[in-house]
Amino acid sequence: MGVLMSKKQQVEKVQKCSIVVSAFKEGLKDRPTVASTGQTEDVVTENGEGSAEGSNQTNTDHAEQKEKDNKQGSLPAQQASALLREENKANQEAWGRLRDGKGVEPEDLKKSHQLTPPAFVRPKRDVNDDKPVDVPLGQRDQPVNDEMCDVCEVWTADDLFPCRMCTRVFHDGCLREMGYLSTEALQEMRETAHTTSGWSCYYCDNVNLLLTEEEMYSLMETFKQCKIIPESCLVSDELLQYRHFVTKQLFDRDLTDEEEEEVLAQFAALDPEKKGQIEWSDFLYHETLSVLQKFRTENSLVRILTAKERDRARAVFQSLDQDKDGIITAGEAKRAQTSWFYKINKESQSCNVRLTGLCSPCNVGISHVGPISESSPASSSSERSRDKAMENDNRPATWNNFLRESAIYILAARPNSSAMHIHLPL
Predict the structure, then answer these.
(1) How far apart are CA 356 and CA 345, in angstroms?
(2) Are 278 and 267 in contact (CB under 8 A)?
(3) Is 0.70 topped by the overall pTM?
(4) Which one-letter DSSP state was computed for residue 360?
């Protein structure tokens, strides 16, 4: 009986569970969440793919419009960025040419036909550079010019143009293709190379090549700190600012009013044509000579002189040494030093010059190479005061003393430029 009752209870229990499950299922169907979910599915089903395509089309149109707006807005920025990159590249190339001593490229240079220029090697200081060098007064070097063009190594006789400082000779076409000279400079070379005043080749004209790597690095660092851009012209305010910085750096003080006037006189000396600005090459040569004058000894500068320069110095000294005792006065020596900054007028190339290869200010047909402003060393009042001081200086000067003291002025006369790159001796 107990077992039968148990089975009956089990049957009733199963029936009750079935009823509960059925009720639970019916309740799920009636829940609002499920209804809304079903409605969403119905909406998607009814709209089908058309709604998705509409949404995608809207997003695409918006993206295209945004991209178009961005392109229009960023066009000036892109142009400015491109110009900046081009300017930075040009500046880097200028710094590289300055470091390597290659100078400014002519604007009319056709790079597609340009020959490969040689690699310039800056000099190194030797332990014996500062020791006295024996340059006999009575024994001339008498150097002979090379027979073949320094560029193409071809001999063509009269078509070769010699340098007045070294023994190199060149074809004008080779210099043009190498990118050394502009069309204007080439014409000047053709007119002067075979005259008494002569022409300096690229190696000799570029006195910056005399600096060692260490000296050039120091000078470039000063330029960078003063925001001096290579191969750009400078106005007087920029030169004053540069001088203020250098004086502050070296002596920890500002320029005095008199020193500022001297800077302006230097500017006038470097701007003989009154353009209101100085060329980069003239500024660089002036600073190069300042480095040589400050950090090199006179003996080391004598070692730099070429055989032609030594012969010209001999000719000057011997012309002043009338009694042939090997001694002249200090005043005569200073007059000789100033003569390195004079040249013959093109109109008077046929004049008979007393000193071969070197012109004295006393000769006929001589024009001053340098400034003409009243504040400059070349003004008439300055010339009169300088000449008067020279006449009163009767101290004896030997050949060796004369050559050592004149070395920096001889080097300063190397460039073809008409600018005055160094102060005349007073």
Answers:
(1) 15
(2) yes
(3) no
(4) -
